[in-house]
Amino acid sequence: MLYLLFNMMIKILPIVGLLLLIPLIAMQLTNEVNWSFFDFIIMGSLLTITGLLIGIVIKKVNHYKYREIIIVIIVIMFLLIWAELAVGLFGTPFAGD
Questions:
Q1: What does the pLDDT look like over 55-64, one tens digit per residue?
Q2: SS3 helix, strand, coil % of the chain, rounded to 5?
Q3: Is the pTM of the predicted complex or chain greater than 0.70?
Q4: In this structure, are residues 15 and 43 in contact, taking their beta carbons and an 8 Å threshold?
């Protein structure tokens, strides 16, 4: 299992790095994107965990129908957490501005 996670990390981390370049470049071009170092750490963690969970589901779940449902649930949870951290969709104490 550890070998599986290590191989997935090798594939996922470059993708996460490329995705995090989008807000980094946008911060250089406009003042409307204002991410702190902490924002990059949180989003990098969220993307990495989401990628690992999807990779584990793809490798371990044999039935295509169940695999699809679980991946959709993982993506929806990622989007809900992202929206909450960004704009405070649900009004929790750790919500964004």
A1: 999 999 999 9
A2: 80, 0, 20
A3: yes
A4: no
Phi, psi of 91, deg, nearest 5: 75, 30
- Strand, coil or helix: what is 86? helix
Within a 10 A sphere around the Cβ of 89, how many other Cβ atoms?
Answer: 15
For residue 85, give Cα distances in angstroms to 13, 41, 56: 22, 13, 25
| Rounded-to-10 torsion of CA 74, 80, 81, 84 | 180
- Assess contact for 46 and 75: CB atoms under 8 A: no
Q: Is 95 helix (H, G, I), strand (E, B) or coil?
A: coil
Q: Which amino acid is at 57?
A: V
